[in-house]
Amino acid sequence: MARMKFLCDADRCIECNACVTACKNEHEVPWGINRRRVITLNDGKPGERSVSMACMHCTDAPCAAVCPVNCFYTTADAVVLHSKDLCIGCGYCFYACPFGAPQYPRVGNFGSRGKMDKCTYCSGGPEVDLSVAEYEKYGSNRLAEGKLPLCAEMCSTKSLLAGDGEMIAQIYKERVIKRGYGSGAWGWKTAYRETIAI
Amino acid sequence: MRHEDETRKDDTGIGRRQFFRTLGGGTAAAAAAVAAVPLTPTEAQAYDPGNTETRSRYRETDHVKAFYRTNGYETLKK
């Protein structure tokens, strides 16, 4: 059984935020929140790195462990989803998540912050596949359409990889063997000369 | 002074300590009565949307294969 994974090739990410925009548009994510974001380390300095982050769909998800209403479940594709009908907006999952994936459409405590929203790996929710109710609550279900998450599919530098974990690991290994990694990567010394080593 | 506060009685004639002792005894009797009633344990159930919604949706369609092919180097293009 294929396990769905995201992998961001930090040597390729140029912080264009196309993945963020694509996700927000595809799922009509409410104002003020993003399911995906680009994090930049050492911004503005030689050797800066950008990584596109969203829900990592953990195997033993801490959000599911702390949820007081048990609204999380894991699909056969190893995607962590949740039911917005059960969510009470308590915010515990936000504190438990090491990636800051759970987001809330409003500011406030407990129920006043609204139902939690997070990356669904473009695979909808517990409603009937490709139904209007599913789209309104969770966004589009591209996996059911035989596609992959849009953030990865439209990455202009092919930095963000998504799909079967074994397949994208193979793609990444092949890249590292071919071009190197970090300061050993192709073009690094042209850009930063030989003074930077990471 | 302190001893006087603890033993002082109000207009009803009941001291503060005596009042709580009386109350504690009553509570213990009530707790014993509740414990005598057999409780039916209710186990917390995790949300289970059913097999239909947790089934695998990933399929290696031509669309997905094209994604792998365009992201990989030469070995995946063969």
From TrEMBL, chain A:
GO terms for molecular function: 4 iron, 4 sulfur cluster binding; metal ion binding. Keywords: 4Fe-4S, Iron, Iron-sulfur, Metal-binding. Gene3D superfamilies: 3.30.70.20. InterPro entries: 4Fe4S_Fe-S-bd, 4Fe4S_Fe_S_CS, ET_IronSulfur_Cluster-Binding. Coiled coil: none annotated. It comes from the Bacteria. Pfam families: Fer4_6 (PF12837). Residues 4-34, 78-107 form the 4Fe-4S ferredoxin-type domain. PANTHER family: PROTEIN NRFC, PROTEIN NRFC HOMOLOG. This is Formate dehydrogenase. It comes from Methylobacterium variabile. The lineage of its organism: Bacteria, Pseudomonadati, Pseudomonadota, Alphaproteobacteria, Hyphomicrobiales.
UniProtKB/TrEMBL annotation, chain B:
It comes from the Bacteria. NCBIfam families: formate_TAT. This is Formate dehydrogenase. The lineage of its organism: Bacteria, Pseudomonadati, Pseudomonadota, Alphaproteobacteria, Hyphomicrobiales.
